[in-house]
Inverse folding.
């Protein structure tokens, strides 16, 4: 695929740190570009040379399999050189600070840094210290922009548009960066968003983000086009946000009973990895007619290819020593 | 048809009564007709056109006929003894604390208590669910599942939820399902070594005191948390002027809270401890006269929503101890009505207001089918003579335990008959 001057003007951001603040047009450019990669990824020969000679570093301060792999495949399919750096949190504590790491990596002249970090705001801090493009691969409970984009692409391919849809995001909103990025993206694109969770898993004043909060699945799912389940992030919880997994599933786990309140053709989504029997019933998760969970994974690679392409096409090497 | 003849014999006409129905503001001569387990009709002119054929007639002799009392705070001793004491006290519904053995922190225990209470057939027994597993204060019990199985509200009983974050989570999670969270208002670190109210009496007796601040600190903390979470908070057995004032102000600010007190806190003060009388050792402790008067004031202006017995039976051994070592708690089922009527006899409240605190208010707070003399409601009734005098003696207290803080007190107001689901479960022997 060739560099398109129209895309360049329509998406001129240096980094992709979050969805909040992106315009509908910028999101549309990202989604349109992603769309073009879906077909390429289904061919036998999936590789192009758009990023030939470029260096991409996957810098992950948190365990991740799917996001890291998805970015890695995206980089390779565009012909770039991509390396993985997984930094265990413990070694960070005894070793260099985030900013020092950023400076060190920057000295190696990467073109794109993909960063995941457990602290909200860490990716932005790092982006201020480097010359390359930075993609936020998830920062704390703040944002996970590529997840929201792949969710949007999945919905758009199935429904043709995002505008006017009623989307329910269910479960652990409190700890979820996926929820926040999705809330921003969906609302920017004209969808209506509900959040459904026990009050203990809803952040304070969530409705100020423009969403409607519900405390039970039956009412919240009524008339919804999209049911987006979130992973219960038990690793981020001390106990007591809810009493037990059993009670959580009984009242907030997605099963066919609760799903029956949504529109009959409502799509079921989940960012993965799923806790089967915790936030989602196994049969619902595997329902080929309703669940688009695997499709979301497929769209992830296409979206990340689009992000890499659009960010690198904006790079200005003239001022640097590259 | 057998069913029909049964039905006729199930009809009871309570005639010649002074009807007291606070929910409908009725204090008038009249009657109640019950059919089986339900009230068929009630009203001032009910039997003007005669009594229905086949109805059993109970002549109330002009005495007061009211909805059976609803006691929202009872520690269960022996189930049958508690049931009998409640019936003789005019109580037709009571809500028991979860500090049973085993603790009501799961659905199985809740169902066990409910089944045994039904079998007994005396006062109806509802139950609180525990807020935390084993009343341990650290891990939330399955509140929503317990509520589905019938728990009417949640509390850790006489244990305070000391951890503020735990209380916040309980109120927040509880409000997801519109559950009522009840906390024992006492900062444990301030109450840990105390055995009675802090002050002059404690100093003279040489006993370690519990300052009133222990109560108001917890009340104010919980009010803040209720405001933060939007949860439904109920503060149990308020005993201090400072707590009443804090609650009064919070209500004025529109915060969603309610509270109750118990007869000892408006009818007694710390002087009842007298010469190390362990029957007057309660939790919270009896306070000073200033606080007692403030409780009366809170009842008068509606700051305090409910009066509950705070029945806490203790065996003889646990009370026959030096004061500091003796168990806290007093029985109260039997004396709930008579002591509450002192508010009426002393001119602080009208008789309907007293009855509201004991019937409609707790029933509405806990969404119980009780507390009203209306068609279709359960035939739970109390017939009493508000003026008849008696003395609180061991024999008069039908509960197994005899540890009443009102021991030997002359009181006014006696229960003549108690009816649960249309059946007479207590009748005063003349």
């Amino acid at each position: 695929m060739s560099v398109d001057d129209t895309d360049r003007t329509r998406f001129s951001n240096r980094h992709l740190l979050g969805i909040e603040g992106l315009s509908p047009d910028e999101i549309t450019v990202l989604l349109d570009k992603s769309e073009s990669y879906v077909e390429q990824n289904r061919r036998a020969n999936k590789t192009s040379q758009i990023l030939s000679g470029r260096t991409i570093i996957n810098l992950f301060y948190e365990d991740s399999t799917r996001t890291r792999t998805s970015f890695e495949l995206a980089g390779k399919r565009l012909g770039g050189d991509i390396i993985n750096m997984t930094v265990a949190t413990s070694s960070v504590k005894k070793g260099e600070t985030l900013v020092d790491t950023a400076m060190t990596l920057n000295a190696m002249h990467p073109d794109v840094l993909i960063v995941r970090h457990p602290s909200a705001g860490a990716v932005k801090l790092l982006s201020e210290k480097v010359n390359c493009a930075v993609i936020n691969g998830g920062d704390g409970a703040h944002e996970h922009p590529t997840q929201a984009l792949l969710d949007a692409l999945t919905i758009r391919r199935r429904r043709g548009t995002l505008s006017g849809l009623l989307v329910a995001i269910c479960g652990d909103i409190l700890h979820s960066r996926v929820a926040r990025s999705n809330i921003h993206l969906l609302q920017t694109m004209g969808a209506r968003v509900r959040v459904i969770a026990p009050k203990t898993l809803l952040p304070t004043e969530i409705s100020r983000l423009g969403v409607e909060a519900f405390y039970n699945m039956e009412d919240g799912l009524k008339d919804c086009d999209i049911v987006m389940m979130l992973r219960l992030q038990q690793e981020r919880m001390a106990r007591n946000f809810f009493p037990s997994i059993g009670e959580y599933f009984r009242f907030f786990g997605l099963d066919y009973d609760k799903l029956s309140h949504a529109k009959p053709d409502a799509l079921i989504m989940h960012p993965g990895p799923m806790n089967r029997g915790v936030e989602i019933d196994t049969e619902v998760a595997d329902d080929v007619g309703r669940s688009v969970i695997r499709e979301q994974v497929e769209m992830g690679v296409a979206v990340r290819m689009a992000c890499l392409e659009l960010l690198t096409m904006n790079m200005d090497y003239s001022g640097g020593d590259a | 048809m057998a069913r029909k003849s049964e039905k006729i014999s199930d009809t009871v006409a309570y005639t010649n009564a002074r009807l007291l129905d606070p929910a409908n503001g009725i204090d008038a001569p009249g009657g109640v007709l019950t059919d089986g387990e339900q009230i068929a009709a009630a009203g001032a002119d009910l039997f003007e056109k005669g009594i229905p054929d086949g109805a059993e007639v109970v002549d109330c002799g002009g005495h007061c006929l009211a909805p059976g009392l609803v006691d929202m705070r009872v520690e269960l001793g022996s189930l049958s003894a508690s049931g009998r004491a409640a019936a003789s006290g005019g109580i037709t519904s009571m809500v028991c604390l979860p500090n049973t053995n085993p603790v009501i922190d799961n659905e199985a225990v809740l169902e066990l208590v409910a089944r045994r209470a039904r079998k007994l057939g005396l006062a109806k027994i509802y139950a609180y669910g525990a807020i935390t597993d084993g009343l341990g204060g650290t891990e939330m019990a399955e509140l929503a599942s317990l509520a589905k199985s019938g728990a009417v509200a949640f509390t850790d009983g006489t244990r305070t939820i000391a951890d503020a974050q735990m209380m916040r989570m309980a109120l927040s999670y509880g409000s997801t399902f519109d559950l009522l969270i009840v906390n024992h208002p006492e900062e444990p670190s301030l109450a840990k070594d105390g055995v009675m109210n802090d002050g002059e009496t404690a100093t003279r007796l040489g006993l370690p005191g519990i300052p009133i601040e222990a109560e108001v600190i917890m009340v104010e903390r919980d009010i803040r948390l209720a405001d933060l979470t939007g949860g439904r908070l109920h503060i149990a057995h308020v005993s201090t002027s400072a707590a009443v004032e804090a609650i009064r102000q919070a209500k004025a600010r529109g915060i969603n809270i309610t509270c109750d007190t118990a007869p000892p806190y408006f009818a007694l003060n710390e002087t009842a401890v007298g010469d190390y009388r362990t029957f007057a050792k309660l939790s919270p402790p009896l306070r000073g006269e200033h606080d007692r008067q403030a409780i009366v004031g809170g009842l008068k202006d509606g700051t305090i929503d409910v009066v509950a017995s705070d029945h806490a039976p203790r065996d003889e051994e646990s009370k026959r101890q030096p004061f500091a070592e003796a168990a806290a708690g007093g029985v109260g089922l039997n004396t709930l009505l008579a002591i509450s009527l002192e508010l009426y006899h002393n001119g602080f409240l009208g008789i309907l207001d007293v009855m509201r605190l004991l019937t409609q208010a707790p029933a509405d707070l806990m969404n119980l089918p009780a507390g009203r003399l209306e068609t279709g409601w359960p035939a739970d009734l109390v017939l009493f003579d508000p003026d008849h005098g008696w003395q609180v003696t061991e024999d008069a207290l039908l509960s197994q335990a005899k540890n009443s803080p009102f021991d030997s007190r002359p009181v006014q107001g006696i229960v003549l008959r108690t009816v649960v689901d249309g059946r007479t479960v207590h009748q005063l022997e003349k």
Observations:
- Residues 144 and 363 of chain B are 20 Å apart (CA to CA).
- The first helix of chain B runs from residue 2 to 9.
- Chain B touches chain A at residues 138-145, 165-166, 169, 172-173, 175-177, 229-230 (CB under 8 Å).
